[in-house]
Amino acid sequence: MNRTDFRRAAAVVALTGCATLLACSTQPPATTTTAKTPNKFAANATLRQIATAQDERNAAALLPFLAQPEVQYRREAALALASVQSKTATSALVARLQDDDASVRHAAAYALGQTADTTAEAALYQRINTETDATARRYELEALGRCTSRAGLGTLVRLPTVLATDTAALSGQAWGLYRAGLRGLTSEAAVSRLVQLLGSGNPVGARLAAANALARTRSLNLVPYAAAIGMAAQQDVNYAVRSGAATALGKAAAAPAVPAILATLTRRDPDYRVRVSALRAMNAAMYTQVKEAAWAALTDKNDQVALAAAEFFLAHATDESGTLFLEKANKITPWRVRATVLAAALHQPSPERAAIRGAVQERYAASTDFYEKGYLLKALGEDPAAFNFVKQATFTPNQPVVVGTYGLEALVAMRHQPDFPTSLHSEFAVVLRQGVLSHDVALMGIAAEAIRDPKLELRRLLPATDFLEQARDQLTLPRDLEAWQSLQQTIDFLRRRPATVTPVASAATHPINWTVVMDVPAGQRAVVRTSKGDITLRLLVEQAPGSVASFVELTRQGFYNGKNFHRVVPNFVAQGGCPRGDGWGSSDYNLRSEFADLRYGEGAVGLASAGKDTESCQWFITHAPTPHLDGRYTIFAQVVSGMDVVSRLDIGDRIDRVELVR
C-alpha cells in the first residue's frame, strides 16, 4: 500500500483485569507530563544519536548501544533496530532476550518481529518457556508469529500448559497467529485455536487478534465455524471484535445462517463500523437474501454505511432494472453515495442504459464540485458507450487535476469491461500514450500501470519504450517517486527484464531537524480544523521525531491549509494532506519510516508512503483498529478528541487549517 493506494493501515496497561489491552492500543507509554514538558530528546544527546543512527539506517552504529549499562539506551537501540530492520542485528537482539530488564526484552522481541528473521524462531520459542514478565512474553509470542517457519507454526498453536490461563500469553498467541496468517502461514489447528480465542471469556486483545486473523488470512473456509463466529459478531461487547467477526463471516457465506446474521447486523448493530463490515461481507450468492437490508442501508444515518451499501449493489446486483437504481439515486443526497448508485445503474445491462448515461452526463455538466465530477466519471466507467465523453472530460485543459485523474482511471476501468468494443482498442492505446506524455504525474502513473496490465495485452499496440523513458526523465525525484516507479516498472515489463530497484532518498537528503524536535513539548497538540468540525491530535514526538518535525514544519508554513481529504474508505481511513488533492502529490523530500512500538487502533494518525522510507506530507486517520498496518506505516500522532468528526469526513471535505496548540 502506498500514497496512491491510499487513494484506492502501546499504551502500557496495568496487568490486571484485561491484562493485554496494549495489544490493540495505539497509545505511547502513559505520561503525566504537561504540554510544556520537554520531550526526551531535548536534554539527551545520546538519545538523539540513537535516533539519528536509526534515521540513517546505520545498524552498525546502533549495535554498541545494546550493550550499554543504561537500560534506557539498550531499550531505545532495540526499538531503533525495529525501524532499520537489518538481519545483521538478529544475533545481538536475540542476546537481549536474556536482558535483566523486561522492557529491554520486549523491545528486543518487537525488533526481531519487525526484522522477520526466521533464524530467531528457536530463540523466541525457548524464551517463551522461561519468561517471567507477562508483557515481554506477549511480545515474544507475537514476534514468533512474524518469524515462524511453516514447520514451526505448531509450536505457536500449542501453548505450554502452564500458560493456558495466562491472559497476556493468550493475547500474544492470538497476535502471533494473526501475524503468521498475514504471511500466509496457517493450518486447520491454527484456525481452530483462533476460533477458541474468539470466545467471550478471553481478553479483548486476544479476541480482537483472533477476529482479525480469521478475517484477513487468505483462503480460509470458515463454514464449520460459522456459529461461533456469528455469535461473536452479534454479541461481543467490543465493536472492533464484532466488526472483525462480521468480516470473517464472508468466508463462511455458504453456511445457511450467515446471510440472515449479516442482514441483522446491517440493520441493527449500534456501531456504524460493524454495519459497514457486514455489508462488505455480503456476496452475490446471497444477494436475494440480503438485498432488502442493503436497500435500507442506502439511507443509513451514517454516510459510510450508505456508501458501503451502494458499493454492495455495484459489485453484486443481478437481474435488477437500471432504472430502479436511477430512481433511487435521484432521491439520495450524499453525492458519493448517489454517484455509486448511478454506477450500479449503468452496470446493469438494460434497454434504459443510454438514458441513464445521459442523466449521468447531465449531472456531470451541472456539478460544480470537482470531486463529484470525478465520481461521475468513475460511474461512466461502467459503460463503454461513454468512452468519448470521458476521454474529452479527462483531457479538458485548465481543469482541476482531480478530474483528469478520475477520468483516466474511469477509462482504464471501461477498457476492462467485457463489452468494451474491439474497434476502440487502438484509440485506447493512443489515450494511454497521451496520458504518459501529459506531464501530469497522475496521468503518467495511471497510464503506465495500464500499459503493463497483462489482461489488457497492450504490448502489440505499444511495444516501444521511448515515450515512457522520455516521460520518466522529465520527473523530479523524490517528489515524483510514484510516477517514476510506475513508468520504470512498465519499461522493465515491455523490455522483459527484472524490475529496477526504486531509488529511495537517503537520510542525508533530509535529516531529522533536531532544532524543531527539541522545541516540540512531549504533550504537543495540533488541531485540524475541518469543514465538518475540529479534530485534536497529540503529536508523538518521542516515538516519531523525524515525522513530527516534518509535520510541524509544514504546519507552521501553512502547507495543509485549504487542502482536502482526498480519500475516505469506510471503516478504514480518512486521508488528506496531498497538495494536488488526488493522492499523487508530495513534498520535495522523503522521510524515513519510524516504526515505533505503537499500534493502529481507532484514531491513529499515520503517514502514507510508496514503500519503506518514502513518507512525505500525506497522512491518514484510522476509523478503527487496522492491525495489518502495524509496523508498516509510521504512526506520528493520535486523535485525542474529534473522532465523531473523523467518522463524518468524506472525500472533498476541507482542511481549513492546522494549528499547533499547547
TrEMBL record:
SUPFAM superfamilies: ARM repeat (SSF48371), Cyclophilin-like (SSF50891)
Signal peptide extent: 1-30
GO MF entries: peptidyl-prolyl cis-trans isomerase activity
Protein name, entry field: peptidylprolyl isomerase
Superkingdom classification of source: Bacteria
Enzyme Commission number(s) of this protein: 5.2.1.8
PANTHER family from the UniProt entry: PEPTIDYL-PROLYL CIS-TRANS ISOMERASE-RELATED (PTHR45625), PEPTIDYLPROLYL ISOMERASE DOMAIN AND WD REPEAT-CONTAINING PROTEIN 1 (PTHR45625:SF4)
